[in-house]
Amino acid sequence: MELTWHGHSTWYVSVGSTDLLIDPFFGNPKTEVDPATLDPDYVLLTHGHADHIGDVDRFQSTPVAATPEVAGYVEDNYGVEETIGFNLGGTIELGGAFVTMHRADHTNGMDTDYEATGGMPAGFIVSDTKPTQGSDPDSTTFYHAGDTSLMTEMREVIGPYLEPDAAAVPVGDHFTMGPMQAAIAVDWLDVDHAFPMHYDSFPPIEIDTDEFVREVKATGSNADVHVLEGDETFEL
């Protein structure tokens, strides 16, 4: 599995021959990629905020998977031709990838029209095998936490049952977790690899990522923290 961070919460995840693009927002200072050069098989949206769906119209012919509310919204407003609506707790098979949607503790109003809501915000657990109660040492699993606060489901459900090997967690504070709570999330998830995201894109979420590294160490977690450069790829 290859994980490429394009800044903010935008990830390009390759699972075998299947390419997923999560939360396309290329209007951030960490990326130099023109989205027109990308050709994902599927686009995943965690929620409907503009800094997560901002460039979905660049992928109008690519199937978009999200909650039914967000899927319908981008179909009606961004010209997306095909959507796959699924919901919290559900697992769908997208090519060679299995994607499980889990809740994220956040808000989900779209644009400035507070009557337009996208249902519960989400995170995605992406794996090359279907999740089962039996632990599979041969599977590789990546958790994109979305725009979440710290939640006990990380410790009680996602970590022990969905068993991610790696997690991308928001660390920018103000709108999501900050470094301290994000570090606790990494510890609860019991992952081997942790990646900070959702930071430095605009002034309220500018942070020193060294603080996140220190906080993860302070939890006693054995996770390796990888502070990626924009457009950098990590092979999991």
The CATH top-level class label = Alpha Beta
- Which H/E pattern describes the elements? EEEEHEHEEEEEEEHEHEHEE
End-to-end CA span: 5 Å
Number of strands: 16
Radius of gyration: 16 Å
CATH fold label: Metallo-beta-lactamase, Chain A
Count of helical stretches: 5
Instruction: Indicate the low-confidence ranges by residue numbers.
Output: none
How many discrete structural domains?
1
Largest sheet: 7 strands, mixed
CATH structural architecture: 4-Layer Sandwich
Query: CATH homologous superfamily - what is it?
Result: Ribonuclease Z/Hydroxyacylglutathione hydrolase-like
Question: What is the average per-residue confidence, as pLDDT, rounded to a whole number?
Answer: 95
Keywords: Hydrolase
Pfam family, one: Lactamase_B_2
Organism: Halapricum desulfuricans
Family: Belongs to the UPF0173 family.
Notes on the structure:
The protein has 236 residues and is an alpha/beta fold. The protein has one domain (2-235): Ribonuclease Z/Hydroxyacylglutathione hydrolase-like (Metallo-beta-lactamase, Chain A). It is 19% helix and 28% strand. The chain has helices at residues 50-53, 68-77, 153-162, 179-189, 209-219, and strands at 2-5, 11-15, 18-22, 42-44, 64-66, 83-85, 91-94, 97-103, 109-110, 113-117, 122-127, 141-144, 166-170, 193-197, 224-225, 232-235. The strands form 3 sheets. A 7-stranded mixed beta sheet has the order 6-5-4-3-2-1-16. It has a 7-stranded mixed beta sheet with strand order 7-8-11-12-13-14-15. Strand 1 (2-5) and strand 2 form a beta hairpin. Helix 3 (153-162) packs parallel to helix 4 and helix 4 (179-189) crosses helix 5 (209-219). The radius of gyration is 16 Å and the shape is globular.
